[in-house]
Amino acid sequence: MTRRAGPAFLLLAATLLAAVAQAAPPDAEPFDIAIVGHTFPDELGDADLKRTIARVDREKPAFVIAVGIKSADEPCSDKLYLQRKALLNKSDHPLVLVLTGDDWTGCRNSAGRSNAIERLNRIREIYYDGQEALGRRDLDLNRQSTITKFRSYAENAYWEMHGVLFATINLPARNNNYLLEAGRNSEYEDRLVANRAWLQRLFGMAKRRRLAGLVLFSDGDLRIHAEPGFSLLAGFSTKQDGFAETRRLTRALAEKYDGKVLLVDANREPPVKGDPAPGTVTWRGNMGHVTLQGEWNVLRVAPGSEQLFALRHDEAAKAHGQPKLPVEGAPAKPPARQVR
Fold first, then answer.
1. What are the mean pLDDT values of the chain's consecutive 10-residue runs (340 residues total)?
2. Which of 28, 190, 213, 282 could form a Cys-Cys staple with 164, CB 3.0–4.6 A?
3. How far apart are CA 85 and CA 69, in angstroms?
């Protein structure tokens, strides 16, 4: 007598098959991500940004990452924010904005007092009013603001593509907006809690889904490969290093994750002795890091390959901060130097 499988068994089997399919998707073709850093002089900002977006569109990336709205010397005005949003929306490809410290941390009102928090909230209203990326093509994002407790943090977003998780996190350069003056760190402390929950969510998701990799885009450099006890502030303890706790948490979470983790930042602070050159991907274990160079970079993602991530450059364009991938059909160029 043949026994028919019951509904519960069939449901369990379907769930297991779905999990296997998620964990081991068929190898996809390599794809490219264009990353634009706002390094333009203020008087030419609009023209240079428009030109750069047109250039990266010709590379036909899967999506574009724009790191920053403005330079430090430009005004923190609604007019400028709206003007730049209109330019970013002209991208032919989905475009995800990563906030930088220049966008808000140094903003001051007409009386010369800091209005950084007010400007940050205004940027959130202008740029993160929906679940979609900027640009002319659709890319659905999952924002941290969908969680009631963290409804202010719409700039933190994630999306998945071909078995790799991509995410943004608000970590401004210049010590993560940690202020040394007592009693003035409410913004930093609240964002620290939100970022802690965000990182735990990202790594937990990547681990459960058995994804091959996680790429995290930010402004500030966590110094993820720094030795224990390292501080960004010479002469101060790690308690005053605004990145110290996030660095420790990221390391701890990465140790429990089998995939590769790549941290990408646009840090333009003076280098610390021993830092690799910008544009060089360095690895320790499963953790990689790169600080971007020039106006734009191209990150190649190769699902199923041993070298999952590589920053690729054309040597002539590299000198001008304009990396370009080889023309289709041309002999392949060696990938950028990888330091392990």
1. 50 44 61 86 74 93 96 92 96 97 95 95 96 96 97 98 98 92 83 98 98 97 80 54 95 97 89 81 96 91 94 50 36 37
2. 213
3. 8
Amino acid identity, position 265: D
Q: Which of 11, 9, 124, 37 lies closest to 78 in space, CA to CA?
A: 124
Q: Is 254 exposed, middle or buried (0-12, 13-18, 19+ CB in 10 A)?
A: buried
Q: Which residue has the tokens 């948490």?
A: 249
Domain 28-339 has CATH 1.25.40: no
Rounded Cα distance between 313 and 213, Å, is 22
Kind and range of the H or E run holding 262? strand 260-265
**116 burial level (CB within 10 Å; 0-12, 13-18, 19+):** buried
User: How many C-beta atoms surround the C-beta of residue 238 within 10 A?
Assistant: 17
Cβ atoms within 10 Å, residue 255? 11
Q: What is the pTM of this model?
A: 0.83
Give the angle subtended at the CA of 63 by the CAs of 158 and 87, to the nearest 5°.
105
Between β-strands 213-218 and 260-265, what pairing exists: parallel, antiparallel or unpaired?
parallel
| Displacement of CA 81 from its chain's centroid (Å) | 20
CB-based burial, 77-102: b 16+ in 10 Å, e otherwise: eeebbeebeebbeebbbbbbbbbbbb
Q: What is the gyration radius of the CA atoms in the chain, in angstroms?
A: 21
- Measured CA to CA, the distance from residue 75 to residue 247 in angstroms comes to 31
CB atoms under 10 Å from CB of 60, counted, come to 13
- Condensed to tens digits (0 to 9), the pLDDT of residues 262-286 reads 999 998 777 777 788 888 999 999 9
pLDDT tens track for 24-53:
455 689 999 999 987 666 556 688 889 999
Query: And the tokens for 44?
Result: 């030419």
- pLDDT for position 67: 95
Domain ranges of the chain: 28-339
Reduce the DSSP state of residue 231 to 3 states and report it: coil
Q: What is the DSSP letter of 286?
A: T
